[in-house]
């Protein structure tokens, strides 16, 4: 991967630098082992708003720097953490898991692990050391992942625990990420990265809370590097010790501090916690080992560069140039289907029939597209690169489009880093210059509608001219309910219910049908109307064709009250479909992200016998959210003396609502629910 | 390959058939067309054939071979196209092979070695575990198709033999399945047949030096668990097997009785309850002034709960053998065995004799009529020797919060194997009935003329009713507790003005008190001159859906309980009651239910509801009556009160 390393010339070995202005040396915020009895006193947990937190991170300090080694550079990451365990529920903080990555001969190694538990026993500080021979375990998770776990001894309520370790990593491409916030309060979290001038990194900073310190300064830098002696063919000479050199120069020291961060809590309708938690991470953008600083080798650099690299990659662009395994079928479609959009839909269906999505979100294919076809199973990249290739074979202008799924986090378009992406779909340029986005991983959606996971900002088109393409929902989430009901003389109701699920509501319902099977789905569906009796079977229509609205019909009856009364109270809108407020909490810190606009509509037609008259009916109402965010309409009309029509329509017109709009959104739901609860009062003559 | 020639001989018939078919090339395998329609009914997948073999090589080694072909009918059955083969330090996977056939029975994909992934099955809470799995994924984009898997696991842990239950899931039919056990005559098999169809029985034969036991099942239609019914394992055929002699890492034991199994466990852990002298002295000092047995136990248990924590380590024999008590005293942590053993050692230092007991926690109880290792947890049992009447204190040693003597839904109301020097003994853990599992609620609701209300509720929960609230109280901070409670309230529009959970340490049975203040903007529904109010604020019991067709299985309810609610509704001035719900009283075999509403002298309306459910098991024929009982409760719980504005 780091081919430029082998190109390090003698020039580098003689590299010396002028003296640089000395920056004042930064003091570390924490020294391992320096907890005193006084530290227990300075923590007054009960006086703090987060006093009931199970644990508190007193200080979490991480440092990354690049060092030379034999024939390579390494990232040295050091971490020291001090945590106060406040309650028994916080004991889990005394067990630490460190994930480590390995690939071929390159490894991440955990070193210098130390830990101490401090307890105050009768005013005396008692220290218990971590014994890693008994309390440290390394697990092989899979080919590329190891998990190192350790647990600290004698942890009680009130203990302070401390641990420190170093990770020596061969992967200079990424530094260790740093997460400043956790689900317990953090008093001080600091990360420093020392980046020598010959490596350049791009930083991604996420989250909302303001940093107490965010600074960058130049510092002197030196490291030693050794190179094996080689013969004229590049073979290593074992008898010769090679060259050793000290590289001195300048480095960039970046420093971030987050202070007094409250515990992070997830809320409903969020993309991923990663988008909201303060964190920094790095990706290598290039290197320059020359003295002049004029020999910069860009490894990622720009979005265009990333695209160029991907086009050449064996498991990305190169695959698309190989013979299409579905080429014959594609050519047949080219002859048969008329418009490009129809042809694209036909190719999409073809790929969906051939390959099942295995749930893995990837940008690189796992193997050749021919093998993907043979196995009939693949990742998002396997499936959708095959789709791109087959679309091309059908004569369409198709290209891959990279994106980041909602689970993976928001794209920052100003930071060209390939690791921001985790998923690929297909883009087709239609003759009218419009964009058609296709994803073959979701056979339950019609062509042009992306799975919800993809509705996340913008995607990058990987083509001769790359650009950002907005990933907007092509459909809404629509539930439509109609009921035709007749009241009988005794106050019982009979009739039929007709349900329609359109757009993403259709996807949701179809997914449930597939996961449960049709009969179990029907049973579960009918449980939603527990008051009603079903007088016939539920009939589903349009299940097979995702371009159609999914419809369900079921005949039902509501028995008459056991004791006849002069007045009949019917909260009809409520009985036919409980509207629930998804927002139980009074406050919200983060935006509400619904992914797509929603609409719930209900229409009830009620026929009355001559023996009943309407005594009272709910008043008509129209509510609107600010900024054209949504509308609620409720009306009861009586077109004829014996007919009543109740219409309720709730529309959420935006996909995302800011925290400022939360109060209004919650109240909007509450009022709609209250309206649904209102009674229709009928009097028996 | 660990095939013995003997083993090949035994499976020779099916292997040669398979090979002949493979050589022929086009002969279909498991074509879907040949599947009987009755087996497709209500099934997501059908096991076409399953051959499971357990070969006992020696007291310490077994080889389990499975060959299974499953037709996947739809997406909900697609899990059957994936296979996880579990292994750990004491076992290894010899091979995992797979093939996919299309609906016509033609092979469309062979599993390659490179397609099989190997994962550590880290459970997310253990500090260390040796559990690993080989995983294959042969899912296909269109249905139906058939997947066949073959694998072999060699195990050096003969403590567990197979429990054969081919119909291992709901909505899974079985066309044909067989199970064979081959074992040397010196290591006879013990087995228990469960729910076998008429005419199916063990076929016993001899092959060379080996005893062969064989079962075969055919044409089992798909099953479904019924609501409020027993789990699937109570409905479908199964054969449990167990050794007579076993050996794990050099520890040999015999297993013909509970006494044997208990003895092996006892001896495996013997001598591991020695404490450092300093700790012994500390315990002695702790109980010096406490002659009473129960006080001693309480003090020791307090010491345990305040100085230790649960850390799970699952490695090899460590699954059954505890780490020594000295280690726990040095580090302050351990798993269920280690903490129970440590507490046993502490009690011994306090002059109290106790015993570790194996249980199956959080899952259906063990089968006491088939001695075998069915356990997953250890608790401590302390028989009181000086009590006036026979009494026992049970201790859950992995929890830092559980009340002394309490075994909740995790370990209560089931059997345990007591480990004594004389061997194992089956005993019962505490059982909690309707008198213990109580929820009592008192609510005052202040209604205004617009229908909104404020309410103050006090709820006292005891026994099993408090289990999850105890977890909330001890596991989360108050802000999070409030959030969880808010999410669980069956109300559409409310805000919480006051909230507190506290435990009542003085109560004889674990008790959690909850104080809840609510603002309810839509408690009453105003409609013209009237306001409609459902007085049953939080205790509405949903109805049970009517059975589709005839009820097949008995009624199994989770636990006995009793609920009592008193709601006082303070009516605003200018309103009078137009109608109040009529009293309801239901007395049935399942339990009793009553509601009653009355106007108190000061004009307050008082609603009293009581539901008492003392029993949990009823015959299947009673199901329609149970549905009717629940329907009536549901109707009564929704009854409303109508207030009308007085003209003034």
TrEMBL record, chain A:
InterPro entries: DUF3857. Gene3D superfamilies: 2.60.120.1130, 2.60.40.3140, 3.10.620.30. Residues 82-203 form the DUF3857 domain. It comes from the Bacteria. Pfam families: DUF3857 (PF12969). This is DUF3857 domain-containing protein. It comes from Hymenobacter cavernae.
């Amino acid at each position: 991967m780091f081919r430029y390393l082998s190109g390090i010339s003698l020039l580098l070995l003689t590299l010396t630098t002028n003296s640089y202005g000395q920056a004042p040396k930064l003091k570390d915020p924490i020294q391992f082992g320096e907890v005193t009895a006084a530290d227990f006193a300075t923590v007054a947990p009960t006086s703090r708003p987060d006093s009931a937190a199970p644990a508190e991170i007193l200080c979490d300090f991480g440092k990354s720097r690049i060092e030379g080694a034999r024939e390579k550079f390494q990232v040295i990451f050091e971490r020291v953490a001090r945590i106060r365990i406040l309650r028994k529920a916080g004991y889990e903080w005394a067990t630490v898991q460190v994930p480590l990555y390995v690939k071929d001969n390159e490894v991440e190694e955990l070193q210098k692990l130390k830990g101490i538990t401090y307890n105050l026993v009768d005013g005396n500080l008692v220290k218990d050391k971590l014994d890693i021979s008994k309390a440290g375990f390394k697990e092989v998770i899979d080919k590329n992942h190891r998990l190192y776990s350790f647990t600290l001894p004698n942890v009680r309520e009130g203990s302070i625990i401390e641990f420190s370790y170093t990770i020596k990593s061969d992967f200079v491409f990424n530094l260790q990420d740093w997460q400043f916030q956790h689900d317990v309060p953090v008093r001080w979290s600091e990360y420093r990265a020392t980046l020598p001038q010959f490596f350049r990194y791009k930083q991604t900073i996420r989250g909302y809370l303001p940093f107490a310190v965010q600074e960058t300064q130049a510092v002197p830098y030196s490291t030693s590097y050794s190179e094996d002696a080689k013969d004229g063919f590049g073979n290593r000479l074992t008898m010769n010790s090679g060259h050793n050199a000290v590289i001195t120069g300048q480095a960039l020291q970046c420093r971030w501090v987050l202070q007094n961060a409250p515990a992070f809590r997830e809320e409903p309708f969020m993309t991923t916690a990663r988008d909201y938690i303060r964190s920094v991470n790095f990706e290598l953008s290039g290197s320059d080992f020359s003295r002049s600083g004029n020999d910069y080798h860009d490894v990622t650099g720009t979005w265009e560069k990333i695209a160029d690299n991907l086009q050449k990659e064996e498991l990305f662009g190169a695959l698309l140039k190989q013979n299409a395994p579905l080429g014959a079928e594609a050519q047949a479609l080219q002859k048969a289907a008329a418009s490009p959009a129809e042809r694209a839909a036909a190719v999409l269906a073809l790929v969906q029939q051939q390959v099942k999505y295995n749930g893995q979100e990837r940008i690189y294919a796992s193997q050749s597209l021919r093998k993907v076809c043979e196995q009939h199973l693949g990742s998002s990249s396997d499936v959708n690169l095959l789709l791109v290739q087959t679309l091309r074979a059908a004569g369409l202008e198709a290209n891959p489009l990279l994106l980041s799924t909602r689970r993976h986090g928001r794209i920052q378009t100003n930071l060209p880093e390939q690791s921001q992406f985790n998923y690929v779909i297909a883009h087709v340029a239609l003759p009218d210059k419009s964009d058609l986005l296709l994803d073959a991983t979701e056979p339950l959606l019609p062509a042009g509608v992306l799975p919800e996971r993809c509705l996340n900002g913008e995607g990058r088109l990987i083509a001769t001219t790359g650009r950002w393409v907005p990933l907007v929902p092509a459909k809404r989430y629509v539930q439509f309910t109609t009921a035709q009901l007749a009241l009988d003389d005794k106050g019982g109701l009979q009739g039929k219910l007709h349900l329609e699920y359109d757009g993403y509501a259709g996807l949701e319902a179809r997914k449930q049908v597939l996961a449960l099977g049709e009969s179990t789905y029907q049973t579960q569906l009918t449980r939603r109307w527990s008051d009603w009796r079903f007088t016939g079977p539920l009939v589903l229509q349009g299940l097979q064709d995702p371009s159609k609205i999914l419809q369900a019909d079921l005949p039902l009856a509501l028995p008459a009250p056991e004791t006849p009364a002069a007045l009949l109270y019917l909260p009809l809108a409520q009985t036919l479909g409980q509207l629930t407020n998804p927002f139980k909490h009074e406050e919200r810190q983060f935006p509400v992200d619904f992914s797509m606009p929603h609409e719930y509509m209900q229409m009830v037609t009620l026929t009355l016998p001559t023996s009943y008259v309407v005594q009272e009916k709910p008043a008509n109402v129209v509510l609107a959210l600010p900024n054209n965010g949504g509308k609620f309409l409720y009306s009861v009309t009586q077109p004829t003396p014996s007919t009543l029509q109740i219409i309720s329509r709730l529309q959420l017109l935006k996909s995302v609502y800011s925290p400022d709009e939360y109060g209004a959104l919650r109240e909007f739901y509450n009022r709609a629910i209250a309206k649904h609860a209102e009674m229709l009062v009928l009097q028996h003559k | 390959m660990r095939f013995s020639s003997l083993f090949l001989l035994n499976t020779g018939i099916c292997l040669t058939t398979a090979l002949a078919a493979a050589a022929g090339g086009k002969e279909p395998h498991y074509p879907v067309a040949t599947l009987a329609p009755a087996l497709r009914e209500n099934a997501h997948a059908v096991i076409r054939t399953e051959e499971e073999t357990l070969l006992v090589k020696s007291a310490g080694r077994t080889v389990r071979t499975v060959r299974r072909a499953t037709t996947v009918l739809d997406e909900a059955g697609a899990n059957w196209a994936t296979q996880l083969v579990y292994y750990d330090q004491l076992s290894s996977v010899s091979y995992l092979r797979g093939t996919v056939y299309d609906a016509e029975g033609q092979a469309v994909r062979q599993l390659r070695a490179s397609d099989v992934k190997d994962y550590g099955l880290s459970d997310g809470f253990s500090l260390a575990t040796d559990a690993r799995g080989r995983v294959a994924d042969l899912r296909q984009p269109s249905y139906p198709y058939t997947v066949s898997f073959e694998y072999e696991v060699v195990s050096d842990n003969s403590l567990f033999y197979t429990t054969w239950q081919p119909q291992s899931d709901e909505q899974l039919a079985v066309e044909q399945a067989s199970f064979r056990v081959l074992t040397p005559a010196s290591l006879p098999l013990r087995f228990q047949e469960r729910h076998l169809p008429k005419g199916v029985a063990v076929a016993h034969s001899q092959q060379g030096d080996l005893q062969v036991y064989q079962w075969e099942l055919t044409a089992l239609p798909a099953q479904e668990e019924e609501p409020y019914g027993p789990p699937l394992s109570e409905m479908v055929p199964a054969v449990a097997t167990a050794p007579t002699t076993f050996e794990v890492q050099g520890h040999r034991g015999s297993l013909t009785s509970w006494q044997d199994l208990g003895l092996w466990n006892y001896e495996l852990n013997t001598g591991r309850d020695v404490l450092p002298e300093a700790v012994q002295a500390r315990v002695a000092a702790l109980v010096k002034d406490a002659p009473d047995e129960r006080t001693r136990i309480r003090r020791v248990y307090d010491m345990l709960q305040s100085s230790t924590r649960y850390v799970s380590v699952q490695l090899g024999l460590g699954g059954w053998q505890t780490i020594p008590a000295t280690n726990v005293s040095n580090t302050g942590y351990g798993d269920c065995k280690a903490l129970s053993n440590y507490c046993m050692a502490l009690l011994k230092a306090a002059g109290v004799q106790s015993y570790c007991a194996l249980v199956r926690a959080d899952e259906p109880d063990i089968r006491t009529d088939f001695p075998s290792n069915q356990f997953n947890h250890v608790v401590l049992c302390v028989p009181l020797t000086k009590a006036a009447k026979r009494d026992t204190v049970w201790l859950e040693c992995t929890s830092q919060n559980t009340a002394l003597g309490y075994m909740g839904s995790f370990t209560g109301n089931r059997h345990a194997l007591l480990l004594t020097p004389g061997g194992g003994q089956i005993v019962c853990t505490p059982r909690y009935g309707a008198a213990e599992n109580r929820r009592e609620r008192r609510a005052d609701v202040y209604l205004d003329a617009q229908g909104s209300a404020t309410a103050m509720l006090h709820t006292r929960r005891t026994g099993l009713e408090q289990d999850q609230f105890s977890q909330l109280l001890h596991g989360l901070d108050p802000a999070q507790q409030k959030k969880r409670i808010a999410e669980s309230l069956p109300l559409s529009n409310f805000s919480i003005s006051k909230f507190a959970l506290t435990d009542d340490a003085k109560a004889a049975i674990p008790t959690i008190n909850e104080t809840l203040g609510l603002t309810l903007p839509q408690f009453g529904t105003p409609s013209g001159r009237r306001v409609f109010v459902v007085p049953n604020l939080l205790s509405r019991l949903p109805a049970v859906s009517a059975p589709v067709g005839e009820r097949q299985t008995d009624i199994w309810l989770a636990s006995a309980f009793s609920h009592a609610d008193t709601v006082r509704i303070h009516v605003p001035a200018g309103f009078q009651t137009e109608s109040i719900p009529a009293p309801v009283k239901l007395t049935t075999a399942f339990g009793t239910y009553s509601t009653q509403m009355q106007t108190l002298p000061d004009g307050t309306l008082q609603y009293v509801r009581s539901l008492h459910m003392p029993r949990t098991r009823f015959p299947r024929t009673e199901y329609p009556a149970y549905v009717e009982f629940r329907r009536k409760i549901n109707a009564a719980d929704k009854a409303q009160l109508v207030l009308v504005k007085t003209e003034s």
